[in-house]
Design goal:
426 residues, mainly alpha, two-stranded parallel ribbon, 6 strands, 56% helix, elongated, disordered C terminus
């Protein structure tokens, strides 16, 4: 190392370059030699350090993962940015999700993805700390509880889960290297590719494969083949395919997302067998742009199963009440589970039928065949139609808000042997 420092000193002297000695530090990665060698530059002793920041990336020599301080620093910076964005609600009231998401992309996500081209996510704990910031922000942007389902945070906003976003950006950086061919970076990549393929050494290239394999729906990177631009483009498409698979599986496996499951089945009809396109599945939904917080919140709570209906509230009772006993508080029929379809479209309680008729009368002015479709379609399909038709969305949101407000005036209908659980409802 001292020989390299001497060569660097001669190069700077020959080219009239000044060296900032106070900012020149030395670090040893791996077991410390005994005795510790003294390194000098221009006759001055260099100081050893265990942690340093280089081009915005924090590194350490005392952890197995040299990027531990970088994850911690970016998590703290993202939290500060997120809190600053959300503090606007103190001045202007509840932030519309569209504005909150714009602020996320401009102020928060840059911290969450900072250095992801170099800092590949091979250590789950490091990525998890950043993912917590993302999910917390999205839940606050949508005004839902910390226990809300994860998949709708992405399918309804168009934001990618952080693991896929960071991996995709790393692949885009590799494509830039192969397309633009910056000499130093390309030579370095060729050298590390050779180290991995010929000697089995762990490098950025092997870490890229490990990061792809660690995704919930993995993406395979061929280590032995030197990548071409076409190979990386195929990998980027594979990332989109894997993300669509992950979101589809998460929605279909949940027992709490019946409305999103019906939407997904509808999308699948127009997609390749078994998998919708990512563009159709993960995109900002129209209801996020409804004109008032009351309307937006009603549809958000309905879609994400954060609503006050018994099918959700009594699931959270202590102990949980079986689904077949979460009966409708309005009609009180022994066979009627108080779920989204029953309360909004089927319940024959007068207070609901009156509001439903007003909704249909309003909707008929925008969609003349709405009553015919109500008869022709199943209740679940008709509910999906109301949610997916933009001209009907605002009156339907008003109807949903009225029903949810009505739920606040009547307690859930508890089975006789579950009466003690009433105090345990959230």
């Amino acid at each position: 190392m001292q020989e390299k420092l001497d060569a660097f000193e001669r190069y700077c002297a020959a080219n009239s370059l000044l060296i900032n000695i106070p900012k020149t530090l030395s670090s040893i990665h791996g077991p410390l030699p005994d005795p510790l060698p003294s390194l000098t530059l221009q006759g001055r002793l260099l100081m050893y350090t265990a942690q340093v920041k280089y081009v915005g990336t924090s590194l350490t020599s005392t952890e197995r993962d040299i990027f531990v301080p970088h994850y911690a620093a970016k998590k703290d910076a993202a939290i500060k940015a997120a809190n600053a964005c959300m503090s606007l609600a103190s001045y202007v009231g509840p932030l519309p999700p569209s504005i909150a998401l714009t602020l996320y992309r401009a102020r928060v996500e840059p911290h969450l993805t900072s250095g992801c081209e170099v800092v590949l996510d091979v250590r789950p704990a490091g990525l998890a700390s950043l993912v917590d910031v993302q999910t917390t922000y999205l839940r606050r942007a949508l005004h839902v509880s910390p226990r809300s389902q994860l998949a709708p945070l992405f399918t309804d906003t168009g934001v990618w889960p952080l693991a896929y976003r960071r991996f995709s950006l790393a692949l885009r950086y590799l494509r830039y290297i192969l397309v633009d061919k910056p000499a130093l970076v390309l030579d370095s990549f060729i050298a590390l590719w050779q180290l991995t393929t010929l000697h089995g050494a762990p490098t950025w290239w092997s870490d890229l494969r490990n990061a792809g394999a660690a995704l919930p729906a993995p993406v395979d990177v061929d280590l032995a083949r030197f990548p071409t631009v076409e190979d990386v483009t195929r990998l980027l498409r594979a990332v989109e395919h894997a993300l669509a698979t992950h979101l589809r599986d998460a929605i279909m496996a949940s027992r709490r997302l019946p409305l999103l499951q019906h939407r997904l089945r509808r999308i699948l009809v127009d997609s390749e067998p078994g998998l919708p396109s990512l563009e159709a599945l993960c995109t900002s939904q129209a209801y996020l742009s409804l004109p008032t917080h009351r309307l937006r919140q009603a549809i958000t709570l309905l879609r994400l199963s954060e609503h006050p209906l018994a099918v959700e509230r009594l699931r959270r009772a202590t102990p949980p009440i079986p689904r077949e006993l979460r009966l409708c508080r309005f009609c009180r029929q022994p066979w009627a589970v108080e779920d989204e379809v029953h309360v909004l479209l089927e319940c024959n309680a007068p207070e609901l039928m009156h509001r439903r008729e007003a909704l249909l009368a309003t909707a008929e002015r925008h969609h003349r065949s709405i009553r015919r479709l109500q008869v022709a379609l199943s209740s679940a399909a008709f509910l999906d139609l109301l949610l997916s038709t933009e001209v009907l969305l605002q009156p339907f949101a008003g109807y949903v808000a009225e029903v949810f407000e009505l739920c606040g005036t009547l307690p859930p209908l508890l089975p006789p042997d579950a009466a003690p659980a009433a105090g345990a409802l959230p």
